[in-house]
Amino acid sequence: MPYPADRERDRPWVMRTYAGHSSATASNELYRRNLDKGQTGLSVAFDLPTQTGYDPDDELARGEVGKVGVPISHLGDMRRLFDRIPLGEANTSMTINATAMWLLALYVSVAEEQGADRAALSGTTQNDIIKEYLSRGTYVFPPGPSLRLITDMVAWTVSNVPKWNPINICSYHLQEVGATPAQEIAYSMSTAIAVLDSVFDSGQVPEERRGEVVARISFFVNAGVRFIEEMCKMRAFVRIWDEITRDRYGIENPKHRRFRYGVQVNSLGLTEAQPENNVQRIVLEMLAVSLSRDARARAIQLPAWNEALGLPRPWDQQWALRMQQVLAYETDLLEYDDLFEGSKVVEAKVEEIVTGARAEIDRVQAMGGAVAAVESGYMKSALVSSLADRRRRVESGEDVVVGVNKFATTEPSPLQAEGANAIETIDPIVEQHAVEAIRQWRDGRDETLVASTLDDLRAAAKTDRNLVESTIACAKAGVTTGEWASALRGTFGEYRAPTGVSAASASGEAGAEIARVRERVRATGEELGERLRILVGKPGLDGHSNGAEQVAVRARDVGFEVVYQGIRLTPAQIVAAAVQEDVHVVGLSILSGSHLEVVPAVVDGLRAAGAGDVPVIVGGIVPPDDADKLRDRGIARVFTPKDYELTQIMDEIVSVIREANGL
User: Fold this and answer.
1) Which fold has domain 512-661?
2) Residues designated catalytic
3) Within 13 Å of residue 661, how many CA atoms lie on the same side as its CB?
4) Nearest CA to 103 among 39, 57, 149, 137?
5) Which residue from 381, 374, 294 is spatially nearest to 342, judged by alpha carbons?
6) Cα–Cα dist 432/33, whole Å
7) What are the percentages of helix, strand and coil residues in the chain, rounded to 5?
C-alpha cells in the first residue's frame, strides 16, 4: 500500500493486469505467468454470460463465451482458475456486479478447499450495480433487490472476511459514458450513500462496527488524459469522502474515513487510429493517480496499447505492467511528500470540482437518492447528454485527439505489421467446449442436493435473511451460475434500465452539416413516401451502450424515427422488432467481439422473415479481417472507432437506404 512504512519511501501500489479469457485453465496459466513477471495482485475479467448470470449453453450466451473474460459456471471452474495460486496469500480483484455474491461464494469455497481461513482472504468484488444501470449494462435484477444483495454482502464480509472489500464503487465507467469530473464524483458518492444507508438501516451491523463498514468501502476510478484535472479530481474525491463519512455517518477514526481507490486508466479513450499513441496516453493517465501522494491510488491496472483493436496478447499486457514498474522502482516518485500541497492553481481547481460535485449530490439526494435517480432516468439522461457534448467537441475539432481529428498523416506502424496476429483471438471451439463441459458437470452432481440448496436460496430471498451463506451452500452443492441467477430472477424479477436517449439533449449540434444530412433524410423519406426509420440494436450480452445511444441521439437529431429498445436482445428479438416497425435499416452495435456469431444470425433471421431487403450495418470493435467477413455475409457497412464523426455516419446510412431501395 502507498502509505509509508517509514519516512523515506512509500511502498508501491498494488500492480494488476485486468485479464482472463477462453477458459479457466487458460486464464490460470496467464495469471501465473503475470505473477512471475512481478504483478502483485490479480484482477479477474469474467465473460459476459458469467457477469449476467447465464450458463454457456443459454441462447443469450451464444458468441459471448470466453470473449471479454473467463467463463466461470460452477465450483469446478473456480478451482481451475486458481489452481496453484494460494488464495490465503493472494490479493484478488474481481470485476463482477450483478452476480458478485455468487462469485464471492465460489471464491470462498475454493479458498476453504485449499485450507485457507476466511478471515485471511483479501481482495475486492466490484459489486456496484448503480453504474451498471448507467453504463456497463451487466445488471440483472431491479434496483431494490440488487441493493439488498450488496447490503447482505457488505454485512457478511465485515463479520466473516474482514480484509475483503465487498464493493468497489465505480466512477470509472461513468467517465466512459460522458461524466464530467463533478458528475463522476457526485454519482459515485450518491451510490456510496445509498449502500451505506441500506447497510446501516438493515440492522445487520452493530453501531460500534460502522467504522469497519466504511473502512471496507473502496472505489474504482478512471483517469483520463487531462492529467492535471484528473489529479485534482482525485484530491476532490478525498475531501468529499472525508466530509460525508464524518458528517453524515459520524465516523470519527480518520483511518476509517480514508479514501481507498484503485484505478484503470481510460480504455475507451484509446484510439484505433495510430494506436502507438496510446502508450503515451496510458503513461500520462497513470501519472494523474500517482503524482499526488495525498490522493495516490492503492492499486493500478493499465490497459494495453492495442485494446482499441481487440483482445491484447500476453506481451502487450506485460508492456503495460512494465510501465508501472518503471514508475515505481526506477523513478524517485515515492521518495517525496505531496508535490502539490499549497499550490494555488491546484487548490482552485479542486475547489471548483468539489463545488460542482456537492451541488449534484444535493440534486440526486433531493430526488430520493441514487436508486430513485436511476429509476427516473435522470442520471442516465444527464450522462448521455454529457457524452453528446464531448463528441460534438471532438467532431468540431475543439477537443484534439492526436491521430484522429488532427495530425492524422502517419507512417505504417511496425507494431501492427502482423495484421490479425497483432491481437489475441479466441478460437470458436472454446464456446463448444464450455457447453460440453457444463453438461458433463450437471451429469456428475447430486441433483437432490442441488434442488434443496436452490429451494433454500429462493425461500431466503423471500425473507430478510442474509443470502450469502445460502449462496455458499449452492456453490458447494454444484449449482451453476445460470441456476443461481435464475432462482433469484424468479423471486426478484428482471429489469430493463432507462436508455436515457429520449430525454437527452445535444447542445450545439445544429451546424451546416447537420442541416444538410437532415435535408437528405427528409428528401429520401419523401421519395419513399414515409419517414425514414432506423432500428438501433444491441444483440447478445454486451452492455456497453454509449455508442448505440449516441447513434440513436444523432439519428433522431437528423430526422430519423429511431427504434431503440436498449441492451441484451437476442437476434430473434431484433428481427421481430425490425419487421414489426417496418424499418428501413438495422444498425447493430457490438463491442464484445461476438460480431461474427450474432450479426449473421440477425441477417439470416431477416431473410427468413421475408425482410432480407432491409440493409444491416454494424458498429463496434471489429478487426479489418472480420469486417471483410461481415461484408461477405451481406453487411452493408462496418463502422469502427476510427469513424468518429456521427453526422458523416448518418449521411452514409442515408446512402445505404437509397442503395437498398434503388434510389
Assistant:
1) Rossmann fold (3.40.50)
2) 18, 172-173, 538, 542, 544
3) 18
4) 149
5) 294
6) 26
7) 55, 10, 35
Q: How far apart are CA 473 and CA 452, in angstroms?
A: 10
Task: Residue 125: name the closest of 146, 147, 105, 148 by CA.
Answer: 105
Contact 99, 484 (CB under 8 A): yes
Residue 345 and residue 339 in contact, taking contact as beta carbons nearer than 8 Å: no
The 3-state DSSP class for residue 46 equals strand
Nearest CA to 453 out of 463, 467, 433 is that of: 467
3-class SS at 613? Answer: coil
Residue reference for cell 439488498: 148
Residue 272 predicted with pLDDT over 70 = yes
Calculate mean pLDDT across residues 91-97: 93
Q: Does the 14-408 domain belong in CATH 3.20.20.240?
A: yes
| 190-221 pLDDT, tens digit each | 999 999 999 999 999 999 999 999 999 999 99
Q: How far is CA 577 from the centre of its chain?
A: 27
Closest CA to 481 of 27, 75, 144: 75
Tell me the domain boundaries of the chain: 14-408, 512-661
- Helices 227-243 and 344-366 meet at what angle, rounded to 10? 60
Instruction: Please report, as a single letter, which amino acid is at residue 92.
Output: T
In the block, which residue shows the cell 460525508? 244
Mention every residue, 6+ apart, whose C-beta is less than 8 A from residue 111: 87, 88, 118, 121
- Are the CB atoms for 470 and 69 separated by under 8 Å? no
Tell me the residue ranges of DSSP E strands in 344-461. none
Lowest mean pLDDT among 189-193, 486-490, 524-528, 645-649: 645-649
Task: Return the minimum-mean-pLDDT range out of 160-164, 293-297, 441-445.
Answer: 293-297
Residue 13 in this model has a pLDDT that exceeds 80: yes
CA distance 111 to 105: 10
Cell numbers at 520, concatenated: 437528405
* pLDDT tens per residue, range 308-327: 887 788 899 899 999 999 99
Measured distance CA(24)–CA(495) in Å, rounded: 29
Strands ordered across the beta sheet of 42-45: 18-19, 42-45, 91-95, 122-125, 164-165
Which element (helix H / strand E) includes 38? none
* Residue 417 reports pLDDT greater than 60: yes
- Render the burial of 506-544: b for 16+ CB within 10 Å, e for the rest: beebeeebbeebbebbeebbeeeeeebbbbbbbbbbbbb
CB count, 10 Å around CB of 468? 23
Report the DSSP beta bridge partners of residue 364. none
Average pLDDT over residues 409-428: 76
Computed on alpha carbons and rounded to an integer, the radius of gyration of the chain in Å comes to: 24
Q: How far are the Cα atoms of 275, 313, 416, 541 from residue 308, in angstroms, in the given order?
A: 8, 13, 13, 19
**Collapsed DSSP state (helix, strand, coil) of residue 523:** helix
The arrangement of strands across the sheet holding 585-590 comes to: 561-564, 533-537, 585-590, 616-620, 637-639
C-alpha span between 185 and 167 (Å, rounded): 16
Are 70 and 23 contacting, i.e. CB atoms less than 8 angstroms apart? Answer: yes
Neighbours of 632 (CB within 10 A): 8
The phi, psi pair for 261, rounded to 5°, reads -145, 155
Model-level pTM? 0.86
